Amino acid sequence: MELLSEYGLFLAKIATVVVAIAVIAVLIVNLTQRKRQRGELKITRLSEQYKEMQEEMSASLLDDHQQKQWYKAQKKKLKQEAKEAKAKAKAGKNGDTGKSRVYVLDFKGSMDAGEVSGLREEITAVLTVAKPQDQVVLRLESPGGVVHGYGLAASQLQRLRDRHIPLTIAVDKVAASGGYMMACVADKIVAAPFAIIGSIGVVAQVPNFNRFLKGKEIDIELHTAGQFKRTLTLLGENTEEGRQKFRESLNETHDLFKEFVHQMRPALDIESVATGEHWYGSQALEKGLIDQIGTSDELLLSLYENHEVIGVRYQQRKKMMERFTGSATESIDHLLMRWWQRGQKPLM
Fold first, then answer.
1. What is the pLDDT of residue 126?
2. Which stretch of DSSP H or E encloses residue 173?
3. What are the boundaries of each domain within the chain?
4. What residues contact 274, with CB distance under 8 A and at least 6 apart?
5. Separation between Cα atoms, residue 298 and residue 307, nearest integer Å
6. pLDDT tens digits along 187-214
């Protein structure tokens, strides 16, 4: 009995130590996650990348003797630049190139426009440092999605417009429906020749399983307070009155969409383009939906000579489960994109 008692006491001590270690580990993990919860801004000096690319290409085209001379001159140049940077730092002018800045953001939108959480952080960061002579370029790719999500994304871009910071949106692939709602906020829209533009319309579809359930002798009861709390349902029996109200809501949303686009681009013949159709870049230019044909690469290369081009990206740290579910969501979005490209229309 004494042996068993001592053994039990030993196990209790071990269990206490294990629990204590586990509690400490959980606290450390929670504290770490809290610190990382907000995410972080990643700044990329694109001007320097373009400059390095240009220099590497120039050097590679020289013969061996010329390359040696070039590298020697380059070494001398870098030494001089470091000396000048040190002098500027002492004078309190560290990082000041004297050039206006172009802040480059990216928005690759999903159906729920969840990327707006990062966009709002990026725009807030830019607004804290932007000067009147600076500007923003947003590389946009989105087929649209839920109304409230893209409405918020457009409102975030409106913050730049309200502060009189020039905004250019570059579309290489697609800015349709809710994506175009974002694009039209810009002072200038640049799109590639075959980029998909427009689709100023609203669509919704709801499957109904009521007949199937009736065949299986399954009753569905739906109780609401308010005549139109539910217009169409998945399981209950839909009424013509509910369908009519649902169509009215769609038309009201479409009218708000048209009004917003017309407000942003008053010269646009809104009735001729708000049919839900989409056009390619060259066609969109003729209709006034965009301002210039070109790719985002051409646009940034044209700016980097006279401006300091800086990439700004907000990266949210994700837990392992969020990474997994995020990958699954992204796969679904890619599938929806393929369906859309085969003729389906986005939600908005």
1. 97
2. strand 167-176
3. 42-81+97-201+269-341
4. 200, 201, 254, 257, 258, 261
5. 14
6. 999 999 999 999 999 988 888 888 888 8
Q: Rounded to an integer, what distance in angstroms lies between the CA atom of residue 232 and that of residue 254? A: 19
Residue 38 main-chain phi, psi, to 5 deg: -75, -20
Strands 307-315, 40-45: parallel, antiparallel or unpaired by DSSP? antiparallel
Ramachandran class of 201: left when φ > 0, alpha when ψ lies in -120 to 50, beta otherwise: beta
Answer for the pair 239, 208: CB distance below 8 angstroms, yes or no. no
Count of Cβ atoms closer than 10 Å to residue 260 Cβ? 17
Domain spanning 42-81+97-201+269-341: CATH 3.10.180.10: no
pLDDT at 69: 87
Angle formed by the axes of helices 64-90 and 46-60, nearest 10°: 160
pLDDT digits (tens, 9 = 90+) for 78-130: 788 777 777 767 776 655 667 899 999 999 999 999 999 999 999 999 999 99
Strand partners of residue 170: 139, 190
pLDDT confidence bin for 322, thresholds 50/70/90: low
C-alpha 29/C-alpha 320 separation (Å) is 13
Residue type, 341: Q
User: CA 54: distance to chain centroid?
Assistant: 29
**Catalytic site positions:** 177, 229
